[in-house]
Design brief:
This is Polysaccharide export protein. Keywords: Signal. InterPro entries: PEP-CTERM_polysacc_export, Poly_export, Poly_export_N, Soluble_ligand-bd. GO terms for molecular function: polysaccharide transmembrane transporter activity. It comes from Marinobacter adhaerens (strain DSM 23420 / HP15). By secondary structure, the protein is an alpha+beta fold. The protein folds into two domains: about 10-85, wza like fold (2-Layer Sandwich), CATH 3.30.1950.10; about 90-170, Outer membrane lipoprotein wza domain like (Outer membrane lipoprotein wza fold like, Roll). The chain has four helices and ten strands, in the order E-E-E-E-H-E-H-E-E-H-E-E-H-E. The strands form three sheets. Strands 7-6-10-8-9 form a five-stranded mixed sheet. Strands 2-1-5 form a three-stranded antiparallel sheet. A hairpin with a 2-residue loop joins strand 8 (about 130-140) and strand 9 (about 140-145). The longest helix has 12 residues, at about 55-70.
Length: about 180
């Protein structure tokens, strides 16, 4: 199981729905506050559409500076994220399946598997607690890690009480009941 990283230390990437303020020094007519469109672009005077999604603010500023340099002498561009709306969805943790109340909640540093299970009201009687999984994005792709929630909740085995990261999803499958079992 990978260890948790401090999500606050990672550089912010602009996302759809974020509001960015683009300031072009000594060119107030080119400065504006813009919402990133669903296609990931912003529209700027003189440059047209510029892809903003997935870029750090300084990367976007550099790209706008290069585009404007063909029309404006030595443009100085600053980009600030003034409303990080996309972060609300990226920085969530989720629990699905056989819990009393499946949840998607805002990530809080230090949040653990047990915290999320308790927020979801605990497991249902039909939960296959030994087959639960934690799905986490690692190096751009989702990895699945086994969780024994029965050991964690009933036995207090903290080996399964992992610290969560933004984007984590806990899945609790249903028990398989075979005919003839009572």
């Amino acid at each position: 199981m990978p260890t948790a990283t401090d999500a606050q230390s990672e550089p912010y990437e602009i996302g759809v729905g974020d509001t960015v303020s683009v300031h072009v020094w000594r060119n107030p007519e080119l400065s504006q506050t813009i919402v990133v469109r669903p296609d990931g672009n912003i529209s700027m005077p003189l440059t047209g559409d510029v892809i903003a999604e997935g870029k750090r603010p300084e990367e976007l500023a550099s790209e706008i500076r290069v585009a404007l340099s063909e029309l404006v002498r030595s443009p100085e561009v600053t980009v600030m994220v003034v409303n990080p709306a996309s972060k609300e969805y990226r920085n969530r943790v989720r629990i699905t399946g056989q819990v009393e109340a499946p949840q998607s909640v805002a990530f809080q540093p230090g949040m653990t598997v047990l915290d999320l299970v308790l927020l979801a009201g605990g497991l249902t009687d039909f939960a296959a607690d030994g087959r639960a999984t934690l799905n986490r994005q690692v190096d751009g792709e989702y990895k699945t890690f086994g969780l024994d929630l029965g050991e964690l909740i009933s036995e207090g085995n903290m080996d399964f009480n992992h610290v969560l990261q933004p984007g984590d999803v806990i899945s609790v499958p249903r028990k398989q009941i075979f005919r003839g079992e009572l």
